[in-house]
Amino acid sequence: MLSILIPVYNYNAHPLVKELYKQALNCNVLFEILVYDDASKSSFNIENEKINLLKNCTFLSNEKNLGFSSNRNRLVSKSKYKNLLFLDGDSIVIDANYIQKYIKSISENIDVIYGGRIHPNSVTDTNKRLRWKYGKFIEDKIANVRSKKKYICLMFNNTLIKKKAFNLIKFDPITNKYGHDDTLFAYKASLLNLKVDHIDNAVMHGDIDTNEFFLKKTETALENIFLLYNTHKISHKFVRLLLLYNVIEVLKLKGFVAFLFEIIKQILRSQLLSKNPSLVLFKIYKIGYLCTLKTPN
What we know:
The chain has twelve helices and ten strands. The protein is an alpha/beta fold. The strands form two sheets. Strands 3-2-1-4-8-6-9 form a seven-stranded mixed sheet, with helices on both faces. A three-stranded mixed sheet has the order 5-10-7.
């Protein structure tokens, strides 16, 4: 009935799997839990191997790195059941009825169910403030708010989807680097008019990136969305940042914005890597960086 799919890279997913395993057993349903490490060759995999000791649970480390999208697609190809629950490996289950809530929400009329993700109320490590702030004040939304923009707010860090619906789309290997693989999937779901439901069944984000690492991941994600835009795989109207970028392009101001960004880039970086990073300046950094990217010849 339920395949729980967890892609990981250099992370100990054993505690998460133990909690999911316990809850799934209590629900008395057919289930499996598949955890695939994407060839990180991490020492954490010693702990992850213990997943194989649990009934209906499999841990596997890919022989070669497949990338974000391809690893997720592989998990689906190896799954048994018609309902797929995608979870990030660094998720923390905060509700003892988490699995039960999803099972009760399954309906023939719904293709995708997103439970949401939240961040802790505070972080003690000031070197993680940028990722925490962005998560807490931008990403974290209750179901009623997410439902108003049901496709735009669809992410794949805590998502149940019917396998037949997933196979209509799949993750595009063009986004095998970090960032916006779920944005492209959500956009394609909107084109197919898949039936999406948002519920309050959040997990907590457990492994919050350092400021510097998150900024680097953001740049990679911007390169991804730039590629999707220029290969016409996604509409600029679907992503707020691309909407602004498109206006800048139409007004022929891209070069000017890129020039200004290069002047202030180090000042922005210093502020974003500080103990009190500004989300407003983070937005400026993103649009500035996007404008510096060039279309391949």
